[in-house]
Automatic annotation (TrEMBL):
It comes from Cobetia amphilecti. It comes from the Bacteria. This is DEAD/DEAH box helicase family protein. Gene3D superfamilies: P-loop containing nucleotide triphosphate hydrolases. SUPFAM superfamilies: P-loop containing nucleoside triphosphate hydrolases (SSF52540). Residues 18-93 form the Helicase/UvrB N-terminal domain. Keywords: ATP-binding, Helicase, Hydrolase, Nucleotide-binding. One of its GO terms (molecular function) is helicase activity.
């Protein structure tokens, strides 16, 4: 994985205001993730900025060709909608689950109804799955 050199502007010209821990976490993830080590855990307090960090990490991984899709999992529709907005703002692409989209955002409950579809998605390409906990 290539190193992140700087924050890239969001659509509209704004740069994501990353905190020091977020930038370090992204760097560590980019250095750690590989075919042999496909998992990475980021743990922080509520409201610390894990969602923004995940969105910027997803952007980096999409840009360097490490992943093909993003599948965000969250506990409620409100959290999922907030995540969709955050990811779409950072990525500049929709996450609505349509064929041309870069991925989708769903609740844990919705997984039960979409297991076949999501299994196919994960088998066809490399998928980043940031999950709310």
């Amino acid at each position: 994985m290539r190193r992140r050199s700087q924050n890239r502007p969001l659509k509209g010209g704004a740069t994501p205001p990353l905190r020091g821990w977020q930038a370090r976490c992204i760097e560590t993830a980019l250095q750690t993730l590989s075919e042999d080590r496909p998992h990475f855990l980021c743990q922080a307090t509520p409201g610390a900025g894990k969602m923004l960090m995940s969105a910027v990490l997803a952007e980096e991984l999409l840009l360097n060709g490490s992943i093909d899709q993003v599948l965000y999992l969250g506990p409620t529709t409100a959290v999922v909608q907030h995540a969709r907005t955050q990811f779409e703002q950072v990525l500049g692409r929709p996450l609505r689950g349509n064929l041309h989209d870069v991925g989708t955002c769903v609740t844990y409950h919705a997984l039960h109804h979409r297991l076949g579809e999501l299994k196919t998605l994960c088998q066809r390409g490399r998928v980043l799955i940031p999950a709310y906990s």
